[in-house]
Each structure stands twice: as structure tokens, then as C-alpha cells.
Design brief:
Aminopeptidase; 7 helices; 2 domains; 29% strand; alpha+beta
Length: 257
């Protein structure tokens, strides 16, 4: 783990807790120190095993229990591997058992008291959920049940949150979501319509969200981005985001989705 300064395991675990809280990890079970997420949808960290805390049961028994659980739930069995995953030999044990690594993701953070402040001439609207969810549904491809579920989660979310969006020719062309817990602000769902990428819309959205985070007295911003997304990494680097740590997933062949 590295960045502008070393990230301790305790800090990394607390950052993960904030990210799970921000993502609405409501459909989950606690199993001997592991958080077993089972919320269907594209967000894998909410439908996988998050091995966050000390484990006491035999490892092989726990892995088999998780495999059976996800089969019953009709979801792929996926483990999310973190630098503080418990027990320490979990990643090695899964590898030996044929669970393959995929989708490495970088967790980044920025000190908002020192990070770069970028101005943009693009007009950005700050809109609170669930109005934001309705407005960006087309861009984020949320339809019917998925949109209804997102609106319900937004209505019941207990911590401060708000959204940003940019309109182009009457439709939403870019968006992002800000969720705050204490002095930490998480950036989520930062998206630009494919046909309009490269025009600075993502920069404008991130700048607006970070301004709002500072206005709400957040001191640290964090986000998650896949390691092979060069354009997004460059965008966040311009705002002073640096790598805190990586995580990756493991699943059996045919279940890496």
C-alpha cells in the first residue's frame, strides 16, 4: 500500500467500511468476521464475500459454506481480496483451490485541504437524490426495478449525500455522486456519455463534487477505479488523488462476473 503517505491496515479497513456504507451494503450477512453481500446487480463488492475481520472457523469449511450460500442465492460465488483480508492465507488458499483472480481495482484518496482545485467553465447542477437518480437513469442504464430500487435506497440512506450532473442538448451527459461519512467524502458513479468523452465533462463533475465536499467540511476524498482505466486514473491524478491500496476479486472459472 502506498500513496502520498503510507496507508495503515487500520486506515484501509476503515476506508472500506465507509465505502460499503456509502454503497448501501444493506443485503448482507455477518459470518465469523466476513460480510457476505448478496444484493443482485452490477456492483460486485455488494454481492461478494468481504473478509474484513478476524476469522476463527476452519478456512476450508468457510469457503465451502460461502460457495453453497451463493449457489442458493443464484449468484456467482466471489471473494473480494483486500490487503487486510482475514485470515492472511485466504488469497493463497483460494488460488490453490482454483479460484481465479480478476478485475484489480485501485482505491485512491486525496487530502482536500491540500489537493489541487481545478476550475471548469462547464455548468454542473448539484441535485439531491432521489431526484438525481431519476435524472441520470438513462445514462447509468437504470430501468424499471433497478431504478425503483435505487430510488428507494436513496430515500432511506442515513448519511449526507448529493449528486452532480451535466446536461447536453436536453439530456444528462455526465454525472457523479457524493456520499459523506464524518470527514470523508466518497465519489461514486462518475460517468460520461461515451459520445461526449474527452470534452472535460468528467473533470467538471469531479471538480463540482469536491467543492461540495469541502463545503460540507470533508477533509479526505476517496474513490475506487479499475486498474486498467487509464483515462479515469489520469483524471483523478490531476486532482491530487493517489493510490492507497488495491483490491481484486477471486471466483471459480465461469463465475468471474
Amino acid at each position: 500500500m502506498r500513496g502520498s503517505r503510507k496507508t495503515t491496515l487500520a486506515e484501509a479497513r476503515r476506508l472500506e467500511e465507509r465505502a460499503l456504507n456509502a454503497s448501501g451494503a444493506f443485503q448482507s450477512l455477518a459470518y465469523d468476521g466476513w460480510l457476505i453481500g448478496y444484493r443482485p446487480g452490477p456492483t460486485k463488492r455488494l454481492r461478494c464475500v468481504n473478509p474484513l475481520y478476524r476469522s476463527t472457523l476452519p478456512l476450508a469449511e468457510k469457503i465451502e459454506w460461502c460457495a453453497r450460500f451463493y449457489a442458493t442465492a443464484k449468484l456467482p460465488a466471489i471473494f473480494r481480496m483486500l490487503p487486510f483480508a482475514q485470515p492472511r492465507d485466504l488469497d493463497r488458499a483460494l488460488d490453490r483451490a482454483g479460484w481465479r483472480e480478476f478485475e484489480r481495482t485501485v482505491v485512491q484518496r486525496a487530502d482536500l485541504t491540500r489537493s489541487v482545485r481545478i476550475k471548469s467553465s462547464v455548468s454542473v447542477e448539484i441535485i439531491a437524490p432521489p431526484q438525481w437518480d431519476r435524472a441520470v437513469a438513462g445514462l447509468l442504464e437504470l430501468e424499471d426495478e433497478a431504478l425503483a430500487a435505487a430510488i428507494e435506497r436513496a430515500r432511506n440512506y442515513p448519511l449526507p449525500h448529493t449528486g452532480a450532473l451535466i446536461r447536453h442538448n436536453g439530456t444528462v451527459a455526465a454525472c457523479g455522486l457524493l456520499k459523506i461519512e464524518g470527514d470523508h467524502a466518497g465519489l461514486f458513479a462518475v460517468t460520461t456519455a461515451e459520445a461526449l468523452r474527452g470534452r472535460g465533462l468528467g473533470t467538471a463533475v469531479v471538480a463540482a463534487l469536491l467543492r461540495e465536499a469541502r463545503r460540507r467540511r470533508a477533509r479526505v476524498a476517496y474513490l475506487q477505479v479499475t486498474a486498467d482505466n487509464g483515462a479515469a486514473l489520469a483524471l483523478y491524478r490531476a486532482f491530487g488523488f493517489t493510490r492507497a491500496y488495491d483490491y481484486w476479486y477471486r471466483a471459480r472459472p465461469g463465475e468471474q462476473y
